[in-house]
Amino acid sequence: MDRLLPCTIVLLLFINTVKTDGCHKRKFKEDSFVCVCNELECDSFEPVTNPPKGLIYSYVSDRDEHRFHKDTLDPKTLVNTVTADSIKLSINVNETYQQIIGFGGAFTDAAGININVCKFENHFHFYFTYVKSLPDKLVLDLIRDYFGKDGLEYNMGRVTIGGADFSTRPYTYQDDYQDLNWTHFALVEEDLVYKVNYYAIPYIKLANDFSGGLKLFGSMWSPPAWMKYQQRINGTGILIGDPGEAYYKPMASYMVNYS
């Protein structure tokens, strides 16, 4: 039981907060505050709608007081030296540019671990105990706040191909064999056990339910170290050679294998 105390203490800290403007405020050592959810109450973000004709909505977050504080404003009251008749806004609906697919976040190892597990360290190694750090209701509130209609309405998610800077270790899917045909390509324990059962896949499904149609894409943080000039995964580095040479087409095949 002693090993569960770090998780329990974190949850108890949620109690002592000050609520203003729908937000349970808590300050850490920084010069601003965060809004904290607990099992009884969690602030939400109402769906964005069109304002009444002639008015605009203003959303303000600042250092000292507000988080997404909504005001309804009349543009005529916002200018002192310009008359309303002299303000002209021209929009050419026939001239278009890039299309925005959406906004989103990454389903990383670190995100899942922080929601799901307590990590303990002794003098020799790290080890994980898979006990949820958050109650089920707070997990739902967390995913809803990002992907739900009364949240930020994210509609995209990034899944890392191999390890990333938010993993507990650097890894790819073929670290030990310098084979450009990828005959030894294989998912690792993080994928087969932890992501499937404890974090990425369950939370991707929840996010899809809240968003009503989640778009996913995979991105690779680093090729295997043996394909890079620096011969290491961490840090900056590029593929050996130039585009079109020996390593570039196999690198594309590596990503196809993951999909």
TrEMBL record:
This is Glucosylceramidase. It holds the Pfam family Glyco_hydro_30. It comes from the Eukaryota. GO terms for biological process: glucosylceramide catabolic process. Residues 1-20 form the signal peptide. Residues 100-258 form the Glycosyl hydrolase family 30 TIM-barrel domain. It comes from Tetranychus urticae. Its EC number is 3.2.1.45. GO terms for molecular function: glucosylceramidase activity. GO terms for cellular component: membrane. Belongs to the glycosyl hydrolase 30 family. It catalyses: a beta-D-glucosyl-(1<->1')-N-acylsphing-4-enine + H2O = an N-acylsphing-4-enine + D-glucose.
